[in-house]
Predict the structure.
Amino acid sequence: MRLFRFLAFGAAIFAIAAMVTTLLGWSLPAMVAMGAACVSALSAGIGSTLARTPHPEEAPVVALPLAALPLAAAESPLPALEEPRSGEPLRVELPGLSDARLRIRFARAIAAGVPTMTEEAAFALIERFENMRGNTSKAAKSARDFKAALSEGQGAGHAPVAVQAERTRGVIKSQRESIAIMTDHNRKGAKDLRTMGNELESGMDLLKGIEEITERSRLIAFNMAVEAARIGEKGRGFRVIVGELRRLNDQTVDFSHKVSELLVRFRDYNDSVVARLAEETERVAKDVQGGMKAAEEAVESLIAASGTADHFARDVSALVEIIDKDLDGVLESLQFQDITRQMIEGALKTLDEAGLDVENSLSTLGLVDSGAADLARRERIRKVLLDRSRTKGEKAAIMEVKS
Amino acid sequence: MKFLAVDDSSTMRKIVSLALKGAGHEVTEAEHGKDALAKLEGTSFDCIVLDINMPEMNGLEFLTARKFKPAVAKIPVIVLTTQDETSMRDQAMELGANAFLGKPFQKEDLLASVKKLLGV
Ligand SMILES: [Mg+2]
């Protein structure tokens, strides 16, 4: 009867082992291997220790001769165990059972460490989340300010960039028109001066006519002098007139020369003024037009840049919004830390209950598992688990298991 | 608005805080029902975000205790739990909860509940 219960008990241990492997996320082969190890250890332990041998100090240890016992053996007729004579619990050496009980303790330690570790990871992520959110709100604010500066201007009295550029474009256009009008006026002025130069030339031609007239009047004076000399005393009055006529002629020639010189100087001066005016007008017009063109191009670039900047600010805002949504998604995912923690807590509770079931079953059977307190056994299992563990956290949890 | 976030999970408390603070609210944290009742003494809150599964005093026990404290009973409660089941929802609402959200929750849903309850 006791043996029968023992086998049922072995099956329970196997179930616990399977649960532990599932809890720790071990692979199916590992689970099978552990299950098999559990069963063989239980069978071997039971088989090697069924024969009653007195314990040196405490209650006698029973060896169960069931080395080749299959799992289904519970159904076959089994030799009944002899009840212990005294009321003391029977100390049994069941390596599989002891191993399983120790492994449960290690599994518990490993699983118990998971919530702390995931919580630390979650907090590290949340810290980064907060940093990132801080940065995204800064970026969003910059984009907003930038956009406001573009569309509303910077503070009182400052028109927005786009408006300023548009206004400048208007000013340049009207300046260009003014310059064109001024250049036109200058050109017309130069033309008028050139016409005046031509008029001066005509004046000089007129002076040539005066010279001809004085030459002819000089000839008349000469003839008159000859005639006056011929008529003698009676021509005295004529001689006076001839003298006056000659003086007049000389004065006219002198005057005409002076006027001619003046006109030549004036014409030359006019010519140089016309040439300089035309040259300067063209140069200034060219310079101003060049400057206007550069200013116009600058304004056009500014208008284009303000459009690009507006787009840029909008893109930044959109990007910040996407990042914020993603960050919210991260926060949502992190809530699984609480969910997995509760699941692990549930699993640990079940594991504790399973351990208690084992203790109760042993107690009901009046048995004491002497192997579970064996330090060498515990260290051997610790070594196996350490060799197999893949993470630092798992190793640390395994190392923390004490008696 | 002033919120009291009650949850035994520090991760959850932090996440709830971030969501509410992001919307411009103030948040105080409590680890379980008893802690929440202690924090509600002398300090006024506009809303309580309450977990159900907690040590010391769970959410349902808190809701029951709240009924006997007129000042606390007036404060609206949003239940936020992993036990997102109809039976739990009914139980919580019967005990006086004003809104019920499952975990993991979405920030928008929490803020929508806040808006519905407080108009902000
Ligand atoms: Mg909880």
Remarks:
- Residues B 7-9, 51, 53-54 surround magnesium ion (CB under 6 Å).
- The two ends of chain B are 8 Å apart (CA to CA).
